[in-house]
Amino acid sequence: MDRKLKAETWALLLLIAAFPITSWGTVGGNQLVWWIGLLSLIVGGVLPIITRYMDHSTDTIRDVGPEYDDRVS
Question: What 3-state DSSP class applies to 30?
Fold first, then answer.
């Protein structure tokens, strides 16, 4: 996996985890857990923006289309 895909996968996981963590922190009255959920929400939202400005010159270009599909139909 390239760096952009890894960063966006982490962003998705952080965003999925942020809401239950924040909810547990709010319901349980635990400020530390609430702050961890809020931080994961912020980091998960900022990571895709950061990936836009990454250096993509070393990324491999893949041919996409039905003519390049190696699967057996």
Answer: coil
